[in-house]
Amino acid sequence: MDKRNLDFVYPNGSHKAVTLRFDDGPSSDKKMIGLLNKYHLKATFYLIGSKLMQGNGICENEVKKLYSGHEIGNHTFSHKDPRKNTFTSEYVQAELEQGKKFLESIIDSPVTGYAYVCSTYGTIGEDEYKRLLAQTGHKYAIMGNENKSFVPDTDDRFNIAQSFRFRDDMLIQKAEEFCAIDANELSIMLVMAHTYEFDDPKYGCNWQKVEAFCKTVSGKPDIWYATNGEVIQYLLAVSDFKNSNSMLNTTESTLYINLNGRDTTLKPNQNLADLI
Ligand SMILES: [Zn+2]
Question: How far is the CA of 18 from the centre of ligand 1 (A)?
Fold first, then answer.
């Protein structure tokens, strides 16, 4: 049996996942969370430690309660633009570490996701950046590029693309398309914005469009609504298992498999051979 041909599904038994990404923690995140909770959607908010400390947007003492039910990701401590500054390895390491630790201290739980600032590795380069992400305990990192596809882009855990931006003219059409497809492989619709964009017409999106999107994708039994981290960690675990030489699930995730029409789970340290 070739395990790469197995029918992997998400934890709810479906092949489709919708997950949203918002950066920088502006005060308009509050309005967004109201919509997400109304439509039962899940998102990851990539926050900046120093900005929270200054209360410039969302304040640090609001974070835990406000974002509850969603994921908090790291977006560096200071959010300095790598395109306008020359950074040393030590600087980047400190920014990653400090940002992560600060967020963990205010939410009392681990922060494992990261979103690159201004979608670049900057002067230290790609390999060094990824080495530092792993060293500082990050499990995945997301870039700013969109692949305009429902095919998961998880070949590289530290360079993950999103599917679309909220400002995309085709967004609602793509959302309808995603809901309509009868996917037989794991698919994803990961959509990104800064929520302040929805207050200003120059960014090509508004709250009306955002709510129309939420309405379109919500309430579908064949879609898994989860945070970036939940979907990405699951997809990474599936690829790790498929690419390993063993039948043993050495990942930290329970894998869900449709085996001859039967929903089966393969728990960490369980052997696929025992299920067949
Ligand atoms: Zn940012």
Answer: 22
